[in-house]
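Re: weekly structure request thread

Next one in the queue (1022 aa):
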Amino acid sequence: MRVDPASHIQPAGTVLPPNETCDALARRLRAETQGEVLFDDGSRGRYATDASIYQIMPVGAFVPTNDQDIATAIDIARELKVPVLARGGGTSQCGQTTGAALVIDNSKHFRRVLDVNVEEGTATVEPGLVLDHLNAQLKPHGLWYPVDVSTSAQATLGGMAGNNSCGSRSIAYGNMVHNVLGASAWLSSGELVEFGPQATLGPRADGIAQFVHGLAVEHREQIHANWPKVLRRVAGYNLDIFDNQNERPYTADGSVNLAHLLIGAEGTLAYTKSLKLKLAPLPRAKVLGIVNFPTFHSAMDAAQHIVKLGPTAVELVDRTMIELSLANPAFKPTVETALIGKPAAILLVEFAGAEKAGLLPRLKQLVELMGDLGLPGSVVEMPDDARQKNLWEVRKAGLNIMMSLKGDGKPVSFIEDCAVPLEHLAEYTDALTEVFARYGSRGTWYAHASVGTLHVRPILDMRADGGAKMRAIAEEAAALVRKYKGAFSGEHGDGLCRGEWIEWQFGPAINEAFRAIKQKLDPANLFNPGKIIDTPRMDDGALFRFAPPTAPKPYKRIELKPVLDWSVWNVNADPVTEQTTAPGTGGDSTGGLAKAAEMCNNNGHCRKFDAGTMCPSYRVTRDEQHLTRGRANTLRLALSGQLGADAFTSEEMHETMDLCVGCKGCKRDCPTGVDMAKMKIEFLDHYKKRHGYTLKDKIVAYMPDYAHKASRLPWLMNLRNTLPGAAWLGEKLLGFSARRSLPEWRSDTFWRTKADLHGMFASREAVLSVQASGGKAAVLFVDTFNGTFESENALAAARVLKAAGYTLHTVEKSGGHYCCGRTFLASGMVAEAKRRAGALIDALRPLADAGIPIVGLEPSCLLTLRDETLVMGFGKKAEVVARQALLFEEFIARELKAGRFALALTPATAPILLHGHCHQKAFGAVSPVLEVLRLIPGAEPELIESSCCGMAGSFGYEARHIDVSMQMAEASLLPAIRAKPGATVVADGTSCRHQIGDGAQREAVHVAVLLERHLAPQATVG
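Done, posted below.
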């Protein structure tokens, strides 16, 4: 399978085997293993990319369930001569995990900690274990694994070993290779070999060690002459384990550990079964100093002086990254705490030790140093742990924030981790900036100033001339790296974008030694061919995710007329100024929908489990298909015609989108701004128009229309819950699970009860008059759910606001109430949703024009006014209403800040647990709930760290979804509630309250109800 390395024509690993071979592989895997065999086009497409610019369609994907599955798969693949590619989180930035191979996904089942030896400070783990999950298990022992990569919430230990990952604190702890003690791995022959200290090796491993030692002796002169003498060198194979060239020896005593040969090998030598890791004591205290610099050059020049203070990390964030972070609502408050004025760059300087008191003088030394360097008053001192943690989270997201630039041009990774000695860092960055300018681009800089590795991505349009510019810039960057005696590949590995530069870095003799190592361990060329040895050209357009016009199959988008307005994504950006053109001018034939999906760069931020909201369906299934990234990739492939005609509205696409619960977690959490909830609305409209609407769709969608009449006959509507057999029949006919009770209809709706509350609500003229005179006025927007099924919530909100002195008004229409259109959106009826939302906006517009706040109770309904209505074509009137639309708790929090809100409340009588609705989280509206709850004397509300409750409107009521729905709830929400049986549970979402009632048999109340319960007697109204 080897090709002439000089020709670079169709290297192994880039061309699929014959169809009959692929079919045979799939048949045998299904027959001989217990794993999931995924050979359909959609699955292959989802595994065709990683976080790089490349895309290679694999033979198929295989998700093994046990060790024997992997061993069997290797044997079958070897017999059929099909390459094998091991994969973890799929977040490699150089194309390491893309290839025309059988992709074996370790991340679903191979994620156990096999052993922890606290006394020795070691842990043995499976390769699919995520770093953060390992550290969470180590924390009670006072230990951690210190290779703290920025993707620690997604990166698997096997992938980190394959790339020889480094992390922010490598100046203190070293790279992955310095922290691996052993590995158990399969060779392509099927042998399971133990790699470890040379003195402990068995016959097979010892033979490998002797062979590699012989190569090291043979090439000693070339190694000493050509090997980069920096900590951050991850290119090629670690031939220098027998002749150390790293500024930090691989082992403490200088001995040889054969496991280090596999570290950084990118899965080309063996398939890892387990890793033995060296742990470190968990730092008990940290302090952080943020140095603000007036120029980028001054920041680079200062790094060499700062490291002499002995920090554990020195991390750079440049002005572009600062601006992008400030533009992200999730990051802005945190970033602002680190800034003094408008710096051109900041350095995050961390000191760690046993006690915080002993570290504070280190911060003072930093302040003094900056004064000596002519920058007095430039340091923000941050000893507080919570503030440090928040800032590090923003820094960790830096690489992904860079990718949030709209338009076809994107920051491209190919020279971003070149490492140079610190004394040359400022000169190197200045020179590289000039290179970018010559090619009409500029770079965004950040990362590890402590070790001379600065991530920089020039902005290039890979759909056009980006490939040619990429090569030209790489050639000039390589010359600079050689001039400053650095390493061309310093952190993210070789893969497809740097593999061909290995021979340039090390010379032909050492390159042949690398080939000999590959041949010795993998003579069948089975494992991840086309990486490190016999690699393709970095600028081979046929391998690009967005293949240029010169490629055999250039990237094109299908023709599609969207029902929502995606024009804000349909733009182009200037690669130097980053200014975008006007919405709608980007040339996207789908109106911007495709460009919105293309914003996903596969960074894998959605593969997290212990923070934020996204992605709830992935958290319970661990399937790539049911992940924000998986859906975005499938949409991109369909909208570019790569999955065949009509793929966008196919049943396969529906299956991919089905478990998206519309939580909007990605709207806030995704660093590149992928809003899958909105994309699902767009998709459903097209899909349903092609395939038709079910009776269930119509029952859910039109509920606001028939609710007024149905509530007059509640006994009849509730027979489904009370009549024996009715729930079973309803499941068979309509698809609503018999295991769920449906919301109870009632005759005392808000609108009927309101008529009896004289003086509670004022006319429109009266509320406008109060507003005009400077009084306190508000519109209470009562949605279908709180008005029909839980009218006590709306009435409680009215009483609370009335007690606080507000004149209230509601908007109504003859024969019913106004609707935001949410139920129609969820059912794929965008045109119907526009009609309802348009009428509501018209009714609210005069009040919004007058500056009267519109206060809502149900997050999904009120926030529709701040989100979906803005892309329905309503223009300015929707924007006016959106600016005044506030959730009940947001309104109170705002009024509190303005000194306009006060209530007499009785003390708390029980602990309070708060579950945040997904849309509250997406719009940053959870903190106001906590703030409002703290108005209750003695209240100390505790936020449940949970993702989606699993209901998501009608989703959790459906028979085909109920199991997934309950798994989402059981992930964290329901256990947290059961753990505090005496607590009052607050949840503002209608469906959230229903899930808590069903799953925990506990009452959950709206915050308005709890406030009303605590109204002092003299404050009650109505």
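The chain is about 40% helix and 10% strand. The CA atoms of residues 558 and 640 lie 6 Å apart.
Next request, please.
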